[in-house]
Design goal:
Layout lengths: L1 H32 L5 H35 L5
Length: about 80
């Protein structure tokens, strides 16, 4: 029963993802048609945001690893 529920949730998420992608695509096309941005500007911004997010994720991962290593080195007081 849990598997059926999980599959149903996954299908719902895929449908939501599809609709969100469709709306984003329509919005981008309208902005380009109105001359408010170009595909090149959009691509450049997407790459910049991806780089920032990748940097932040790498930093968070390194900080988490450092904290785990330090916690492993702490010995309880006997």
């Amino acid at each position: 029963m849990k598997e059926v529920h999980l599959i149903a949730k996954l299908a719902d998420l895929q449908e939501v993802d599809y609709h969100n992608t469709l709306v984003l695509h329509a919005l981008i096309e309208l902005l380009v048609e109105k001359g408010l941005l170009t595909h090149e500007e959009l691509t450049a911004k997407a790459h910049a945001l991806d780089s920032q997010l990748s940097f932040q994720l790498d930093l968070a991962s390194k900080l988490s690893e450092t904290i785990q290593n330090r916690n492993a080195q702490i010995k309880p007081i006997s």
